[in-house]
Design goal:
binds heme C; single chain; Cytochrome Bc1 Complex, Chain D, domain 2
């Protein structure tokens, strides 16, 4: 009897850890928003690793730190306007055909994200009188 119990405990331990490994954190996210915390970052720039990263590094990190990119979140159009602004005021060159690649990347990983730092104001509050004696 003892042996059976030991065997079963061992079996549960093994299958338990096997199931735990199967359900990774990223799989349980159903939200379409990309959680940048779960993505791998480039050790040199801190930018999120992606097939288009090399182009962003080439076009966007020679004048200033990549932190300026990471700290910002714009729509595709917003990023385009920033690029135009740098072209007009800070000698950024024409990106030509690579602009699409750069914008694809920025739109994908550095788009405006919803934050939940503050909850919605309460609605339909049912106040009640405190019975203080
Ligand atoms: C030719 C130099 C140059 C290149 C290349 C360059 N930038 Fe800039 N960028 C600047 C300058 C100058 C500023 C202003 C820095 C400051 O205010 O201290 C700036 C500022 C920024 C800002 C901050 C804007 C703000 O409103 O504060 C962002 C975001 C940015 N750049 C993104 C990019 C991206 C994305 C690329 C690649 C397409 C890029 N930069 C390439 C020169 C450049």
């Amino acid at each position: 009897m003892k042996i059976i119990i030991i065997f079963l405990t061992g079996l549960f331990a093994v299958t338990g850890s096997w199931f735990a490994d199967k359900s990774s954190d990223t799989e349980s996210y159903k939200d379409p928003v990309i959680f940048s915390d779960t993505l791998k970052k480039d050790s040199e720039t801190g930018l999120i690793i992606d097939k288009d990263l090399y182009m962003v590094k080439a076009q966007c990190t020679s004048c200033h730190s990549s932190k300026l990119i990471i700290a910002n979140h714009f729509t595709r159009d917003g990023w385009k306007q920033k690029i135009r602004w740098m072209q007009a005021n800070h000698n950024l060159w024409e990106l030509g055909e690579t602009e699409k690649q750069v914008l694809d990347y920025l739109e994908k990983y550095y788009a405006p994200t919803q934050t939940f730092a503050r909850r919605q104001p309460l609605k339909d509050i049912k106040w009640y009188k405190l019975d203080v004696k």
